[in-house]
Amino acid sequence: MTNIQTAKPILDVEEKPKLNQWLTLSLQHLFAMFGATVLVPMLVGLSPGTALLSSGLGTLAYLLITKGQIPAYLGSSFAFIAPIITATEIGGPQAAMLGAFFAGLAYGGVAMLIYKFGVNWLMRILPPVVVGPVIIVIGLSLAGTAVNMAMYENPLADPVDFVYSGTHITVALITLAITVIASIYFKKFFGLIPILVGITGGYIAALFAGLVNFQQVIDAPWFAVPDLYMPFVHYSPSFSWTAIAIMVPVAIVTLSEHTGHQMVVSKVVGRNFLEKPGLHRSILGDGVATVIASMIGGPPNTTYGENIGVLAITRIFSVFVIGGAAVLAIFFAFVGKVSALISSIPTPVMGGVSILLFGIIASSGLRMLIEANVDFSYKRNLIIASVIMIIGVGGAYVQFSESFILPGMALAAIVGIALNLILPGRIKEEESLFNENKAA
């Protein structure tokens, strides 16, 4: 891989920052991931403090497994939002953590296969024509959650009990507007944290609208242990295969997302991380981070594009800076008032941000199809994408037995993979991603 980094890095991967700069540089990465990382647990009913803790621990484990050679930060994965909600409805947060644990093990299995057989087989199973529509399904399946949070006083109530609130929708739209403005017009570092900017602006608007209750922040202690949902301690020994079936197939999408992130960070830094330390190590690191999160009650982790953006802008690639951000996240996880402040963010603020974020997830799937030049005049591609999207968006659950229920999104991914392997005429689209990396 040729070195495409035209400017010399300020700090290379193995270099340590000066002590008087280390804290500031690490805080940049903490702020870049903060908004999205705490948003996921708030949407699925988990503890934001636990999410920060699992994010920090998972990142440190990732750096260790990749031999300190890949500057990547791991935060809460948006791809698992709908599966966590579904698994929690079936068996509580412990069931969701059980499913996340096995999803992390699936990463480990894939890492072993890549180490043994190379990486091309993965793209034959997960070409853009399969992954793109699945990502679209993930975003669209969350649309109702975002709108309900933005419009109703109690979005978790039964739909017949929904009470429309003009104040809520106003605050949500203000939050959405601020987030959009920050995304389009803010530059450099502040352009990387539009979610955090939007949540802050929406929080101020909610404060003036009388929707914020500071009492929980005042009452919260400075030191507090995050809420832990440990599946093997707080869950029945009889595993919920339904929760496992709901969570594990999502790894199909996140594995593709992970591979794409590794290609991008390789280009930014000017090294081929897919070869050294190897894609198998980075995927294993991602899987171990998800296992760690599941063991303490945090959402599954994934590498963050926001932090890759920080690398590109600052040209500071030091893994010591990334590690510093992870340590800071762990520290803030035990500051009770921080967790209480996050929990005090009103629902319409989160709904306003989610409208944009979930839409971006769906649009990212569309972008993948465009960038991979998937030709929809070719009937094979049209059939695969159409079946995935209709099954994924239209099917809430598919019950195979009393104890085995598969969500529509997971079934859509499985059917899409099967169609891609069975239908005749597989052509150049399925190998375009790795051909591009090989050429680089």
List the helices and strands and how they pair.
Elements: H1 19-44, H2 48-65, E1 74-76, H3 81-117, H4 120-125, H5 128-141, H6 143-151, H7 166-185, H8 194-208, H9 215-219, H10 231-234, H11 241-247, H12 251-269, H13 274-296, E2 301-303, H14 305-314, H15 319-333, H16 336-343, H17 347-371, H18 379-394, E3 397-401, E4 404-407, H19 408-422, H20 432-439
Antiparallel strand pairs: 1-2, 3-4
Helix pairs in contact: 1-2, 1-3, 1-15, 2-13, 2-15, 3-11, 3-13, 5-17, 5-18, 5-19, 6-17, 7-8, 7-17, 8-17, 12-13, 12-14, 18-19
Protein name: Uracil permease
Keywords: Membrane, Transmembrane, Transmembrane helix, Transport
InterPro entries: NCS2, Xan_ur_permease
- Given the helix and strand composition, which structural class is it? mainly alpha
What oligomeric arrangement do these chains adopt? single chain
First-to-last CA distance: 5 Å
Overall outline: globular
Whole-number radius of gyration? Answer: 21 Å
Tell how many strands the DSSP assignment holds. 4
The helical percent reads 55-70%
Tally of structural domains:
1
Query: Secondary-structure element sequence?
Result: HHEHHHHHHHHHHHEHHHHHEEHH
Question: What can be said about the biggest beta sheet?
Answer: 2 strands, antiparallel
Unreliable segments of 5+ consecutive residues: 1-6, 430-434
Short description:
The chain is mainly alpha-helical and 440 residues long.
